[in-house]
């Protein structure tokens, strides 16, 4: 009946809907999606569709309450991500309402351009990034030292989240009341868990918890912004937040306090969870593939030898020399695909490869499927950083998206992960408690034990 309803609506269209099935009314295929993703077999969701409907690269489905088209072919995805007129941003209701940040979801071109320019000025460019290195290094060095001093296993993912959260807070706010920062961190964790929840606003449901966490975050961040405004009036200037508070673009637009709260929440949310996951997965893959660990460690030792004795800190010049490490990070991003898909919505009826995507349908560029496609990546399940020696990324690698919404924090994230790995590889070892721990993939992949592991300092290895 569900299928029939949509086919009837499309009956006068020149081209048919893509192959696929729309599942049950209202819930569509969301339960099947949740089953595959929470049980740690996210790729079987797509491989089931492919084995049923052939290697078409485009399929219809119904997910998160919307009729949708899944796209898993590189060129088609690139086309959709770079054509803002035909495909606008289209995340599910739960994601948009829980995050509620104009700076990420801005629908008008003008608003997006303004926010994006402001955020990019804080997160991009050689000189800007260079100024963050010491803060990143200090946070990494202190945290790893503390972790290795514990004589018991820790939830490594929670620890990398603390590290990346402290880094982004340090960059944005400088040092601040730790009690408030902890409360902010907890609210982010609740929000993140609700990103792809069923949009049911009833007590006990993840969606309700996510909405409440977002509300609380706004209340926690507001006094910080107000306090800083006052400090600026008194002539004190400290951190990036102050830059935001004094920002003005060429048309004379100045962000209001509400916009600034929005940007702070948006940057922290977009900026720390995926980066933390990247730190953890890099160490898991390296630990489970000792020859890659050895090679990565050797490269860092060589870099240390070239560092002048007067050079106490890492600089971007040294990070750029970490060629193998950047391949490790690419390979980790490919295998992990923190964002399984990038969501768009068709603004008009579109004909693509002989099929119609109707206006208003969601378009899910399923980047995870592209990253695991053996035609682009032979033996896709293998962790093989050396495949990047001669891999051409065009149309087959989208960990940070593409087009006008390409992640403005991509360089910062890669630098944070590189610095973390640099110090980890040189001085520590990771001992996993459950090396075969099952994985869950919602909202992004992680071991179900949060990567229970010991961080052991090299000098303490018997
Ligand atoms: C490994 C870490 C990261 C991953 C995998 C990642 C991934 C992504 C992806 C795929 C998008 C595009 C979304 C879309 O097109 O709909 C995006 C956008 C964005 N990211 Fe990241 N990101 C990471 C780190 C960061 C960091 C560190 C920051 C900031 C400090 C950041 C800030 C943003 C913002 C503000 C957007 C929205 C851009 C826009 O709509 O114009 N991200 N990210």
Overview of the structural elements:
This protein is an alpha+beta fold and 462 residues long. It has a single domain (2-460), classed as Cytochrome P450 (Cytochrome p450, Orthogonal Bundle). Helix content is 53%, strand content 10%. The protein contains 18 helices and twelve strands. It has helices spanning 2-9, 30-38, 42-53, 74-81, 93-99, 102-105, 109-123, 126-149, 156-173, 178-193, 206-233, 240-245, 257-288, 290-306, 316-320, 323-336, 367-371, 410-427; strands spanning 58-63, 66-71, 87-89, 154-155, 342-346, 350-352, 355-357, 362-365, 428-432, 439-440, 446-447, 452-457. A hairpin with a 2-residue loop joins β6 (350-352) and β7 (355-357). α13 (257-288) packs across α16. The model has no long low-confidence stretch (mean pLDDT 89). The protein binds protoporphyrin IX containing FE (HEM).
Within CATH, the superfamily carries the name Cytochrome P450
Strand percentage: 5-15%
Low-confidence stretches: none
The domain tally reads 1
Tell me the CATH architecture: Orthogonal Bundle
CATH topology: Cytochrome p450
Task: Sum up the overall morphology in one term.
Answer: globular
- What is the share of helical residues? 40-55%
Bound compounds: protoporphyrin IX containing FE
Average pLDDT, rounded to a whole number, is 89
Write the layout of secondary structure elements.
Layout: H1 2-9, H2 30-38, H3 42-53, E1 58-63, E2 66-71, H4 74-81, E3 87-89, H5 93-99, H6 102-105, H7 109-123, H8 126-149, E4 154-155, H9 156-173, H10 178-193, H11 206-233, H12 240-245, H13 257-288, H14 290-306, H15 316-320, H16 323-336, E5 342-346, E6 350-352, E7 355-357, E8 362-365, H17 367-371, H18 410-427, E9 428-432, E10 439-440, E11 446-447, E12 452-457
Parallel strand pairs: 2-8
Antiparallel strand pairs: 1-2, 3-5, 4-12, 5-8, 6-7, 9-12, 10-11
The structure holds protoporphyrin IX containing FE.
Protoporphyrin IX containing FE binds next to helix 7, helix 13 and helix 18.
């Amino acid at each position: 009946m569900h299928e029939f309803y949509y086919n009837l609506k499309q009956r006068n269209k020149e081209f048919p809907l893509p192959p696929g099935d729309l599942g049950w009314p209202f819930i569509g295929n969301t339960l099947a999606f949740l089953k595959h993703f929470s049980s740690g077999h996210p790729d079987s969701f797509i491989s089931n569709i492919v084995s049923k409907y052939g290697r078409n690269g485009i399929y219809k489905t119904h997910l998160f309450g919307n009729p949708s088209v899944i796209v898993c072919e590189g060129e088609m995805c690139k086309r959709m991500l770079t054509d803002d007129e035909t495909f606008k941003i289209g995340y599910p209701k739960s994601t948009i309402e829980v995050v509620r940040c104009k700076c990420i979801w801005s629908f008008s071109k003008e608003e997006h351009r303004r926010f994006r320019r402001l955020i990019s000025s804080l997160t991009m460019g050689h000189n800007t990034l260079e100024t963050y290195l010491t803060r990143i290094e200090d946070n990494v060095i202190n945290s790893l030292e503390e972790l290795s001093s514990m004589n018991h296993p820790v939830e490594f993912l929670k620890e990398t989240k603390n590290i990346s959260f402290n880094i982004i807070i340090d960059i944005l706010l400088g040092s601040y009341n730790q009690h408030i920062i902890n409360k902010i961190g907890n609210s982010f964790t609740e929000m993140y868990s609700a990103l792809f929840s069923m949009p049911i606003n009833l007590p006990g449901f993840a969606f309700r918890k996510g909405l409440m966490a977002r509300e609380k975050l706004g209340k926690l961040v507001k006094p910080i912004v107000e306090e800083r405004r006052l400090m600026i009036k008194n002539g004190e200037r400290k951190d990036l937040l102050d830059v935001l508070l004094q920002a003005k673009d060429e048309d004379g637009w100045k962000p209001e306090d509400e916009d600034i709260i929005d940007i702070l929440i948006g940057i922290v949310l977009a900026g720390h969870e995926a980066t933390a996951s990247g730190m953890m997965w890099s160490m898991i893959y390296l630990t489970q593939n000792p020859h890659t660990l050895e090679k990565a460690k050797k490269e860092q030792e060589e870099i240390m030898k070239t560092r002048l004795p007067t050079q106490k800190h890492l600089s971007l010049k040294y990070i750029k020399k970490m060629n193998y490490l950047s391949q490790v990070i690419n390979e980790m991003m490919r295998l992990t695909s923190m964002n399984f898909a990038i969501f768009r919505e068709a603004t008009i009826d579109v004909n693509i490869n002989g099929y119609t995507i109707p206006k208003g349908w969601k378009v899910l560029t399923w980047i995870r499927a592209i990253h695991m496609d053996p035609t682009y990546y032979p033996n896709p399940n293998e962790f093989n950083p050396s495949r990047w020696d001669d891999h051409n990324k065009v149309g087959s690698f989208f960990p940070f998206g593409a087009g006008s919404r390409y992640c403005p924090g991509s360089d910062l994230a890669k630098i944070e992960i590189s610095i973390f790995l640099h110090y980890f590889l040189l001085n520590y070892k990771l001992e996993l408690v459950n090396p075969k721990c099952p994985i869950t993939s919602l909202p992004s992949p992680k071991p179900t034990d949060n990567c229970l592991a010991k961080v052991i300092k090299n000098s303490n290895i018997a």
